[in-house]
What does this fold into?
Amino acid sequence: MRYFYLSAIILFSLLCSAQTEQLIQYVNPFVGTQRMGHTYPGATVPFGAVQLSPDTDTIGYEDNGQYNRRVYEYCAGYQYDDPTIVGFSHTHFSGTGHSDLGDFLIMPTTGDLKLNPGTEENPESGYRSRFSHDNETAEPDYYKVLLEDYGITAELTTSNRVGFHQYTFPEKEEAHIILDLKHGIYNYDGKNIWTFVRIENDSLVTGYRQTHGWARTRTVYFAMEFGKAFKSYGHKKYDNSIYNGFYRKFDEEQNFPEMAGHDIRAYFDFDVEGGEQILIKFAMSSVSTEGALNNLREEIPEWNFEEVKTAGQESWNEELSRIALETMNEEDKLIFYTALYHTCLTPIIYEDVDGKYRGLDQNIHESEGFTNYTIFSLWDTYRALHPLFNLIQPDRNRDMIKSMLAHYGQSVHHMLPVWSHYANENWCMIGYHSVSVIADALMKGVYTDDPDYALEACINTATYPKYDGLEDYMKLGYVPEDRNSSSVSKTLEYAYDDWAIAQIAGIAEDYQAHDKFIERSKNYKNVFDPVSKFMRPKLSNGIFRDEFDPLNTHGQGFIEGNAWNYGLYVPHEPERLVEMMGGKEEFSIMLDSLYTMQLTDEHIEANEDITHDGIIGLYVHGNEPGHHIPYLYNWTDQPYKTQERVRMICNTMYANAPDGLCGNDDCGQMSAWYIFSALGFYPVCPGSEDYAIGSPTIVSAEIKLSKRRTLKISTENQSPENVYVQEVTFNGRKLENWIIRHSDIMRGGELKFVMGENPL
Amino acid sequence: MRYFYLSAIILFSLLCSAQTEQLIQYVNPFVGTQRMGHTYPGATVPFGAVQLSPDTDTIGYEDNGQYNRRVYEYCAGYQYDDPTIVGFSHTHFSGTGHSDLGDFLIMPTTGDLKLNPGTEENPESGYRSRFSHDNETAEPDYYKVLLEDYGITAELTTSNRVGFHQYTFPEKEEAHIILDLKHGIYNYDGKNIWTFVRIENDSLVTGYRQTHGWARTRTVYFAMEFGKAFKSYGHKKYDNSIYNGFYRKFDEEQNFPEMAGHDIRAYFDFDVEGGEQILIKFAMSSVSTEGALNNLREEIPEWNFEEVKTAGQESWNEELSRIALETMNEEDKLIFYTALYHTCLTPIIYEDVDGKYRGLDQNIHESEGFTNYTIFSLWDTYRALHPLFNLIQPDRNRDMIKSMLAHYGQSVHHMLPVWSHYANENWCMIGYHSVSVIADALMKGVYTDDPDYALEACINTATYPKYDGLEDYMKLGYVPEDRNSSSVSKTLEYAYDDWAIAQIAGIAEDYQAHDKFIERSKNYKNVFDPVSKFMRPKLSNGIFRDEFDPLNTHGQGFIEGNAWNYGLYVPHEPERLVEMMGGKEEFSIMLDSLYTMQLTDEHIEANEDITHDGIIGLYVHGNEPGHHIPYLYNWTDQPYKTQERVRMICNTMYANAPDGLCGNDDCGQMSAWYIFSALGFYPVCPGSEDYAIGSPTIVSAEIKLSKRRTLKISTENQSPENVYVQEVTFNGRKLENWIIRHSDIMRGGELKFVMGENPL
It folds into this structure.
């Protein structure tokens, strides 16, 4: 792996433009590609609509729709330990724990035409190829690999909506470009509703793929242009769709310019010379093939691969330069900028160059006055990713909120997104955390447009009775476990979300709504069992369920967590939580136990989405519900333990290596946690202005807040041993209560940490 | 059957507006609904996009895609002899011999909810109902029936793009409206690609149906509005599509506002009082549900069923009044206006109220300066239907040609339509007869816009080498039977079409193209065997195939015909045909034999698409290839035999009865033949200005040619016995050669036939 391979052009532009540092050299796209990170190493621009990346396998469901452990590994299409590459597809989630996508796989081959992908064990049986990490390079918006079985060098880069492929062939021979529309991530028979390919001329192809997967009804259109005319083409259908047309007029399989079926694979034949390159531009659209073609012509009018790559990498340098950094070592810098890179992959831009996109109602909409985004993994990202955007990407976050409100406007349920992608609500996970993202942005002055409409959207979302136990929650003040599983998690998250809505109501000056949702925000108390001192599943008759194992992560009222770690979820009233649990001292002891508990392997295995390294005692950093927990010591008399734990997690749970993420990156949430923590503070309760102070790992940093304002973070006595904060000052004034407010930060200035090797 | 039931309002408007005669009283929509006519009795406006009609059955394919005789009977969804109605669907072909459509079946029921259609033998097993023709009424744009099993009176009318249902319930009970998206005509498992329903609110529903049938990739969107809010709703899925979303948050089947699957049936529940009516507006669009909703709101803003019906029937009176008529008896008038009605059903308007439509490339297009039409059954309709339009519907025919040219512009094959419907080329039948329609309209001054572009489109169509033997045809001058079946039919039709292209080239003043296509137009000679005096299949080695049975309609080089009847197809050079066949006398004898030959039952059975009554000797009036044959005596010395035959065909092959059509009406071609022949002339060679004189059946007629001009056709001594024309004069001048020219007619005036009981 040579992940900071620098092309001559980048070196040249580095010399020419001293202004933008080549920060892409500190990004290692392979981080998270091994085991549970679920990131992809391929090419994309910041928040780019196209993620062009190698797929090393995409094992389909074996039993109709049944969960298949191996499928899960391929959420991002790539697993670092795999020996073969199937091809390069154009859409990938970054870090998710469920999947879809993998649209439009392209693979260059030579020799006999093979249309099936073959297997890892026997790659010769299909079109896939062996590869080695020695011949593989990944940089922001650039990926290169040698496809060993063919000797073809594959290079990939992208603009926002267009993937650019460059394939260099080793010798004079017959070459094929496979376009596999059957391929997909989390594929199974029947997932493809329809696939369609149209040969516009001898170098331009259009079409679409329509799927019924995690996104229930999704169509992606494409326009694919070759730099060289193909000499022939054809396809095979891998389904039993019946078509009796043509009346023996045509041979449908060969050189017939319109191909259609549930599952088709097309191919294009070329004669190539040794060293010859075949270039392909591949544009996508949610609107139409016409939209895709417009995107193609607008974004990449020329055939200059290097130019597109350079432009993409420049855009990365620009995004990364929002935070300048001095670290204790090179490794930390690599971890930091790779994390920052991972926070700039999701949500993605979801509209054509003319602003049109297919909405939730399947009609074509136009974004007016904003850029429309999709992929909202909100149960994850409301925690730290969107708060990070409020700090360094306020314009994008504002547009993301407008995108969520547009979703609400198109929703037949009149709800904001729960977990949405490509104009589909997939209903994944729990809560209605859009309201937290909106509250946080409103509170921090990032979204100011229409608080009344935002409030209406939030209230409608939070009162849709059919949604996930909400009817009971509104009636009883909690979700009863006998009627709805994961009832405690849901009650706790609804309560927090309701607090967020109350904040919005406050800004919108709707005091009745404010009071109503403040009251709902106290509902966490209804699932607290004062006897066991745990949050605990309650039945519809008002009695706690007898059966209760606080260590068990399944069937105990929690989702992807248990009473020990998920039960600490009262981010909006940590003081009350501490009080309920027996006061500061007892709470601190409880936190200590959480971090030091010896678990059985069985209990560890039961935790989802993480590697074993992702657990410290019963604290699970590899999943989201506990991300605020290390900071909770700040509400006891032992904030130094927060500093200890945060520094420890930064050092042990993140690394500059393929297995450098201890769990799913979850669209950047894991990485956003790192960015905040490395800088020394964290948003424990989004929707509030407060950041809790931790222990910075950096030596110094400069955050561009706006064109005129900068936040400088500096440390004194910083060292690997000096993890304890002795004093924090902002613009010379000492901070109280281990809290710094967003509005203070936004005035700009210097946040200074004095570090020491002993607790204060 | 009470097909001239007149509503109070029509009577009223009849009294008020003396200007437009109530010609709809002479239309019997049941004509052709029995046996082979393949017409539908339901409601539609002239050339209307919605054809809302009862389906009495739609037997699916039994074996994967294998031809199924019973399916064939249901091309239009309705067979007069059937005892039950399954429901009312919104799209129907008129008179075709293959099918598709039947979109969006609606059925009102009461009592227990049944979601399957049940069977004819056991209607109680499903939602269908018995009915009787005694309680059934069909008028232009109005259909009424009593659904006996429920006591519900169903009434249907339409605007252009919206179906309007009115269901009257007999007593207080629970009612259901079924919306069956699985239903379709020519359905089979896997034909539905996707179906989608969205409950916008308690009385508005949108959605779409996407099929892979005769139209390879077709999507129709709808918006459905109820006059009364439903109290609950739900659906069932009849397929194995997997959806793992919802995460147990929702019960998908009941009251969940978004339904999707390959095959779904939805239902809506109501409480109704005795005598209560449920009204439904059902709009369609090829663009989007938004487009359908716009169509609905624009075309039928109110809830007044009678108003919509009256407007629809007025538009029929207007179309029918283009020809005023005096006949020898009431029956002839009924036959004539019913035939005229059938010529105004196809092609249909295919665009939203804003001019947008989904094109052949599946992108959204806008018709600029014309109205876009679809359903072009050109192998049938170029013969007499489009020529009839040039006479009485020039504006529509101009727009149809613009629609065909738009198709060409969107075609990946760069071809004009062969047989197209709903922006799909289905490639049915042979030839490229768009060129004939264009030539005829150019020659007659109906289409004048851009002859050069029209010529380009025609030439590209006629030189696409992959199309149906064209490569060989261009190389050898004929289609060789050993490489392409129906080779003689193809050669003959290509030759005629090439002559038509030469006419266009002449108008476009491209003399090189003119000469080239005139040369190609002689290719009929290459399949003429001077020994047997038959057109005969030739092999690629230039030798006629040994095996040859001129009576056999299968495998003998012809399609839906044989050497006897199809071999007479040289419409552009009948003189040469007569000459080749041995001169006038011999040719006349041959024609006599054709009409008098005694056939075995086996030979009769082999003829497609017709009833036994559709044959006279070996002349098959129930199918198209011979439609010009009765007029060929005009090129012998015995034109009186043309007069005899034409009058005989008019009297025996058309009737005012459900079985009143002797074969498929074929989108109005059979009926257009009748209109021309009843008026006394026929376009033997579209693309030429000449009409051949026959024997009029009318007493007199007035054709509105334009606002200012009228053609009056009058007869002297007209009677059932006086079938022979003694003299024909146009504006007092005696016609020579049994020919009248279109440009003469268009000057207006009087065409006068003197009839007699003996040949001249």
About this structure: The mean pLDDT of chain B is 94. Chain B touches chain A through 52 residues (CB under 8 Å). The radius of gyration of chain B is 26 Å. Chain B has 19 helices and 37 strands.
